[in-house]
Design brief:
Structural class: mainly beta
Radius of gyration: 25 Å
Strand content: 15-25%
Helix content: under 10%
Distance between the termini: 27 Å
Number of strands: 29
């Protein structure tokens, strides 16, 4: 079985091949170098805020939206114009002559809840497409009611965004009309998709757009997880389904098996953290997220015993920074440019590319913004919301010739990972963050010359970590901070330093869950691979454990109608997952529902392991995407691990290295590097419950919200690569949680 490890040279030759393309062939790429940088402020108060707590939140959050005391509140996916690019500025020759004749605002999707925050009352242009910011409180249930108001071509003109989205109907996708995709879009004898309905000839999909909203990092029941099968479309009066039967009003015309209804229930019984929500519709996540469907939900807990005072959200010194890359066409519309990472097999998948690579950087929905700051400490909540781009972030002050000050990197004090606080603040000069990851850091702007310019830079290659360097002067820059505000004496500065204690070791420890893993008592270790299936032109699809998303394998213990699950942990169990990356690039692997600890990473002899892997697959007649090579998933290999793969032990080399110090907290997304085994300890129980809790105590009725067995339409959870271009083309697997531990023999 070919993997990308065996064709690195081919990948390098293809990196810059291909032609620009999109669903709308009229789009022409704008030269990103013409876009002015650092001329407009970072969106802050322009976000729509929803107070989903039981408290009155002062200061910054005084103009509250709906959602107090657990009441339902609407969150609707809509299309509108957003000012992502700078407003016209003739002095800066922006926009270039002959471009953006309708203005520099772009049509996007976004979630809105009905307020006018951040919307120009005259032009109806939104300051940012991102949001809302839902402030949640531990122990207070939030009940968003998700609506789909995206323009529906059945009753109104197709939206600008949908016209420009390169929807690839040859993928396994939501397919509301049931006439395309893998069922209705069949290849010919040569494996090519020549049916015009498949989009090969450039026809755009002209049906209703599905959405599915996932709470990334949320401890929620599977019915409200918002996974790929929870998609739904608009409710159009008088509509009929694919069989011609009337659709009842008040219901979406089309929906997936996992759609639970409009109202979701988020118990928020987890630790104080920065979680976020974004679209997850099957096969079009990359497009809906790129179009703008993302927001954040910080969970606050006034009772959390934080030992070192931190900058506060309500004082204005705790600021979200959602980082994404984008490209634009000469009409100033967002452009999912297929030539950014060229189509490797366009006769098979006409519009899918392995990884979208944008040529601009946007923060909080604004290209290369600036933020005016005081000479004090600020807390920043980083969210990597990009499709595929990793970031290696550094923050550097500028020289000041008048005083003789020489610019230097400012230390970033990491205080929290994806799902909770670190034990102590960790100082780092560079933070690596993959798609889907979150980190909270503190930056100190004291001691800098007045009006000093501080710039956040990016040095990560794309694809990561061995691809092309960021473009100097463009994608190597993220945003600027300008230290030009007077110090506000009404709010005391904080004094976070390297090593500052954060968690109370008794009242709020980071529980060492690896100690709950005991193979002698039946605890499970899994060895699972990350594979890249290669076509004639390059990557054809990516798979988890050589298993496509909807591949049924009838694994012992499966209890769903389709039986497509192979990972079936027991509630309360702690397992060790050894993720073996035999592809050429890094993958940020994300688990829904539950969090984990990163244990270590260790290199292995990739060529030798791949040879053994391919030989076993060949011997057992297992092809690409058809399941693990040993066929029998539950059979222990020589390392005592299940998963159906050759034991990795004989191929390991060197010593395992510990995770970065800023990774040593609760995580739900981890970077798995190529040629390495990434080991995580993962536990199916609330993060703040002790590891010695009996398995039966972590069940259906024990903790409100941690009810992982409440399936919806036979659908549980998924785990997948958070390069959303990958997850849309098979790099995702289903899993369910049960009472009984999975059989291993």
């Amino acid at each position: 079985m070919k993997t990308r490890m065996t064709i690195l040279m081919l990948g390098a030759l293809l990196l810059f091949a291909g032609i620009a393309g999109a669903a709308n062939s009229d789009q022409i790429l704008m030269n990103a170098a013409t876009i002015p940088q650092f001329v407009e402020p970072l969106p802050l108060l322009e976000f729509e805020f929803i107070n989903a707590t039981d408290m009155t939140l002062p200061g910054l959050l005084a103009p509250l939206g709906p959602g107090l005391n657990g009441a339902p509140f609407p969150v609707n996916a809509e299309e509108f114009r957003s000012q992502i690019l700078p407003q016209p500025n003739p002095a800066l020759l922006w926009p270039p002559a002959g471009t953006c004749t309708g203005g520099t605002a772009s049509f996007t999707y976004g979630y809105r809840s009905g307020s006018t925050a951040g919307i120009d009352p005259v032009t109806n242009i939104h300051t940012t497409y991102l949001g809302p910011v839902v402030i949640a409180k531990k122990g207070i249930t939030a009940r968003p009611t998700y609506g789909n108001n995206i323009p529906d071509p059945r009753v109104e003109p197709m939206g600008v965004v949908q016209t420009n989205l390169p929807i690839d109907m040859t993928l396994d996708w939501a397919d509301p009309l049931g006439t395309t995709g893998p069922v209705g879009c069949l290849p010919d004898a040569n494996g090519n998709y020549t049916n015009p309905d498949c989009g090969l000839l450039g026809q755009p999909y002209n049906g209703p757009m599905p959405i599915a909203t996932h709470l990334h990092g949320g401890e929620v029941a599977p019915a409200f997880d918002g996974g790929p099968d929870a998609w739904f479309t608009q409710d159009i009066a008088g509509a009929v389904d694919a069989l011609g039967n009337p659709v009842p009003d008040g219901m979406p015309d089309y929906s997936g098996a996992g759609w639970p209804g409009y109202e979701y229930t988020y118990p928020n019984n987890q630790q104080e953290s920065t979680i976020w929500f974004h679209d997850h519709a099957l096969g079009i996540t990359r497009l809906n997220v790129y179009a703008g469907l993302a927001g954040i939900q910080p969970i606050i807990d006034p009772a959390t015993p934080i030992l070192t005072p931190l900058p506060k959200l309500t004082d204005g010194y705790d600021i979200p920074l959602i980082i994404q890359d984008r490209s634009f066409d000469t009409n100033c519309e967002i452009f999912y440019n297929l030539a950014s990472n060229p189509q490797p097999n366009p006769t098979v998948h006409p519009f899918w590319i392995p990884e979208f690579i944008g040529d601009t950087i946007a923060v909080n929905g604004k290209t290369w913004p600036y933020l005016n700051v005081e000479p004090r400490q600020y807390r920043f909540r980083f969210v990597n919301g990009s499709n595929a781009r990793f970031y290696e972030l550094t923050i550097k002050s500028s020289d000041d010739p008048l005083s003789g000050y020489v610019g230097a990197k400012l230390p970033m004090l990491a205080i929290a990972t994806d799902d909770g606080y670190l034990a102590n603040a960790v100082s780092t000069n560079m933070l690596v963050i993959g798609p889907g990851e979150r980190y909270e850091i503190v930056v100190d702007f004291k001691g800098l010359p007045a009006n000093n310019i501080v710039t956040m830079f990016n040095s990560a290659r794309t694809p990561y970590p061995g691809g092309a360097q960021p473009i100097k002067g463009l994608t190597d820059r993220v945003m600027q901070f300008r230290v030009n505000l007077p110090f506000n004496n009404a709010v005391p500065d904080t004094t976070v330093a390297a090593g500052s204690p954060l968690r109370d070791p008794v009242l709020n420890p980071i529980l060492p869950i690896v100690t709950a893993h005991n193979p002698a008592l039946g605890s499970i270790t899994r060895q699972l691979t990350l594979n890249e299936v290669i076509g004639l032109g390059g990557p054809l699809e990516l798979v988890v454990n050589n298993s496509k998303f909807n591949l049924p394998l009838a694994t012992p213990g499966c209890n769903t109608p389709v039986c497509r699950e192979t990972e079936m942990p027991a509630v309360g169990d702690t397992e060790i997952w050894e993720i073996i990356n035999i592809s050429a690039d890094a993958h940020p692997m994300h688990t829904h529902l539950t969090s984990f600890h990163v244990l270590n990473r260790q290199p292995f002899k990739a060529a030798q392991y791949i040879a053994a892997y391919d030989a076993l697959a060949l011997a057992n007649g297992v092809g690409p995407g058809e399941g693990p090579p040993n066929i029998n998933y539950n059979v222990l290999n020589a390392d005592g691990a299940i998963g159906g793969n050759p034991a990795i032990g004989p191929f390991l080399k060197g010593k395992a290295r510990m995770p970065a110090a800023y990774e040593m907290g609760w995580k739900d997304t981890v970077i798995a590097y190529p040629g390495e085994v990434t080991r995580i300890a993962i536990r199916w129980a609330p993060t703040d419950q002790p590891v010695d809790l009996a398995q039966t105590d972590v069940g259906v009725n024990s903790y409100v919200g941690f009810n992982p067995m409440m399936l919806q339409g036979g659908v549980g959870y998924v785990w997948h690569c958070h390069i959303v271009d990958h997850e849309d083309n098979e790099m995702m697997r289903n899993y369910t949680v049960g009472i009984q531990r999975q059989t291993a023999f």
